[in-house]
């Protein structure tokens, strides 16, 4: 089976800084792929290259059988690849429903306003925010804004959803609910590629994990393999004794 996403030898340079260097990996349909590594490792830069914010300086990106390298974020979304942002970016003076409607209008199906509103209503129920549809986005908590960010991306009807630290800043109860949501998204047929620093969560959510360090791929494999990799322990995890805890299933 052809991978849903295939990144091959991708690099990105900013002046004299090589932020991503010859990174290759694949993501399969129905998979949750985790992306981890120290701060500054190049994770968000790689996301930005994949979804078209930055143009790569080398390599190829194939999504759903199409070459998407160099395509604009708008075009990439229409092809079925949507994302959230590490720093939430709601349209604060619009309602929750209208924020999600925007995602549906400019997504894969490029819906008209009435159809987009219906999709927004369905997605808000899916993410547990149906009762907040008429609230202004600025009135939401951080957890609510994170969930809204996910809902707006889901309204674009993606085949692949890129999640950039959706668990950051949440309390334990909110983290548990977001983990449940991510699993349900995958179970609904949307593949997931996620950056996360909360190690126990990403180890338990991911089918496989890619590790970046200084812009290069350090390791790739199943969570238990990555957690026991001496190079990953040295560069990121720090303590070899935490491997068992990190891969302990909830």
How would you portray this structure in words?
The chain is α/β, with parallel strands linked by helices and 250 residues long. 36% of the residues lie in helices and 24% in strands. It is built from ten helices and ten strands. The chain has a six-stranded mixed sheet, sandwiched between helices. Strands 2-1-4-5 form a four-stranded antiparallel sheet, covered by helices on one side. A hairpin with a 2-residue loop joins strand 4 (58-63) and strand 5. Helix 3 (96-105) packs across helix 4 (113-126) and helix 4 crosses helix 5. The chain starts with a strand and ends with a helix. The mean pLDDT is 94.
User: Largest sheet at a glance?
Assistant: 6 strands, mixed
By DSSP, the count of extended strands is 10
Number of helices: 10
Radius of gyration: 18 Å
Low-confidence stretches: none
Task: Supply database-style keywords.
24% strand; 10 helices; six-stranded mixed beta sheet; 250 residues; alpha/beta; 10 strands; four-stranded antiparallel beta sheet
Architecture blueprint of SSEs:
Layout (H helix, E strand, L loop, with lengths): L4 E10 L2 E11 L4 E5 L6 H8 L7 E6 L2 E2 L5 H6 L2 E3 L12 H10 L7 H14 L15 H13 L5 E5 L7 H16 L3 E5 L3 H7 L2 E6 L2 E6 L1 H5 L2 H8 L5 H4 L4
Parallel strand pairs: 3-8, 3-9, 6-7, 7-8
Antiparallel strand pairs: 1-2, 1-4, 4-5, 9-10
Helix pairs in contact: 3-4, 3-5, 4-5
Structure, briefly:
This protein is of the alpha/beta class. It has ten helices and ten strands.
């Amino acid at each position: 089976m052809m991978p849903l996403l295939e990144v091959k030898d991708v690099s990105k340079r900013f002046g004299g800084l090589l932020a991503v260097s010859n990174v290759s990996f694949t993501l399969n349909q129905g998979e949750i792929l985790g992306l981890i590594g120290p701060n500054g490792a190049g994770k968000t830069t790689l996301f930005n290259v994949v979804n078209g914010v930055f143009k790569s300086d080398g390599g190829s990106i194939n999504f759903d059988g199409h070459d998407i390298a160099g395509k604009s974020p708008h075009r990439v979304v229409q092809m079925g690849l949507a994302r959230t942002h590490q720093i939430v970016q709601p349209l604060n003076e619009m309602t929750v429903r209208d924020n999600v409607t925007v995602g549906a209008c400019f997504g894969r199906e490029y819906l008209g306003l009435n159809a987009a509103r219906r999709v927004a209503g369905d997605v808000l129920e899916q993410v547990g925010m149906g009762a907040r549809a008429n609230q202004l986005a600025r009135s939401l908590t951080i957890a609510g804004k994170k969930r809204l960010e996910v809902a707006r991306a889901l309204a674009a009807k993606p085949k692949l959803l890129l999640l950039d630290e959706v668990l950051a800043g949440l309390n334990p109860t909110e983290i548990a609910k977001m983990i449940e949501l991510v699993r349900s998204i995958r179970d609904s047929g949307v593949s997931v590629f996620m950056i996360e620093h909360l190690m126990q969560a990403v180890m338990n959510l991911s089918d496989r994990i890619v590790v970046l360090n200084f812009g290069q791929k350090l390791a790739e494999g199943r969570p238990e393999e990555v957690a026991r990799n001496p190079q990953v322990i040295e560069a990121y995890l720090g303590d070899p004794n935490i491997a068992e805890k990190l891969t302990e299933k909830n």
